Amino acid sequence: MQNILITGGSGLIGQRITSLLEAQGKSVAWLSRNKQSQKSFIWDIEKGTIEPEAMEWADAVIHLAGAGVADKRWTDERKKLILESRTKSTQMLYNAIEKADKKPDTFISASAIGYYGFNTGTTLMEETSAAGGDFLAEVVIAWEAAVKKIESSLHLRTVLLRIGIVLDKEGGALGEMLKPPVAAPLGKGDQWMSWIHIEDLAKMFIFALEKTTLQGIFNAVSPNPATNYRLTHEAARAKGKPFVGIGVPGFVLNLILGEMSQMVTGGNRVSSQKIQKAGFEFDYPILIPALKDIFSR
């Protein structure tokens, strides 16, 4: 039986990956601050401690942990937490793996399409495209550098999945978009949103785990990005919610969200070709069927 250790396992993505792995008969444990009903090992990012048995137990690590980017307004303190929750946790995992007598052989990490910058217009971004120069891009650059150190120094097979906008009924982007009584596009509404159904994303992590020749960076987005206007409109229709086609002005979003407003007024059109050429097949490549599935659950 394969033992899989997950950080951030209690989040939406982590829970779904856990369910899929356990359905396959794999043994799953979470790295957690507290003991869970789920099998778990204790870690404390602030103190820099991990139960040493965790890495001895694990055959592979799936690293999802990191403070929510859109959960709170970006104060200097919040920005520091967003960065360090990713870089410090990755360095802790590096240290724990380095010390372990029996090491995992695979390390799969979340990353983000924020790597490309807040707004890349209509240009189709591929894994080799240049990084952006804004806050989120800087976070992802530092995060990926910490993961690549595990690959280069500890010689583990390493996969990084640059995740787009995750569509799920229980939370994430859809929950926020459809929270107001009436749905409306944000800003001009013509900005590209590279989305992925949560089932496809969870399945992609399993694919990365099982395909032992897979290594490097891959965009975790559907093959068919949509504009903010279309995604909001179709999501409202799928949920049976009123939609108004007049966008929420950018200056209003800036007043409410501050610097974070650039996340929603900007956009990225991101390619999924690399992961598809590696053999991954999407269950939900098209927006409308993806949304219908999500709201029928």
The overall average pLDDT, rounded, is: 93
So what's the CATH class? Alpha Beta
CATH superfamily: NAD(P)-binding Rossmann-like Domain
Structural class: alpha/beta
Strand content: 15-25%
Secondary-structure element order, N to C? EHEEEHEHEEHEEHEEHEEHHHEHH
What secondary-structure arrangement, pairings included, does this model have?
Blueprint: E1 3-7, H1 12-23, E2 27-32, E3 40-44, E4 49-50, H2 53-57, E5 60-63, H3 76-99, E6 106-112, E7 124-125, H4 135-154, E8 157-163, E9 165-168, H5 172-177, E10 192-193, E11 195-197, H6 198-210, E12 216-220, E13 226-227, H7 228-239, H8 250-257, H9 262-265, E14 269-270, H10 273-277, H11 287-296
Parallel strand pairs: 1-2, 1-5, 2-3, 5-6, 6-8, 7-14, 8-12, 9-11
Antiparallel strand pairs: 3-4, 10-13
Helix pairs in contact: 1-6, 3-4, 7-11
Structure overview:
The protein has helices at 12-23, 53-57, 76-99, 135-154, 172-177, 198-210, 228-239, 250-257, 262-265, 273-277, 287-296; strands spanning 3-7, 27-32, 40-44, 49-50, 60-63, 106-112, 124-125, 157-163, 165-168, 192-193, 195-197, 216-220, 226-227, 269-270. The longest helix has 24 residues, at 76-99. The mean pLDDT is 93. The strands form four sheets. Strands 4-3-2-1-5-6-8-12 form an eight-stranded mixed beta sheet, with helices on both faces. 42% of the residues are buried. Helix content is 40%, strand content 19%. The protein is an alpha/beta fold and 297 residues long. The chain has one domain (3-296): NAD(P)-binding Rossmann-like Domain (Rossmann fold).
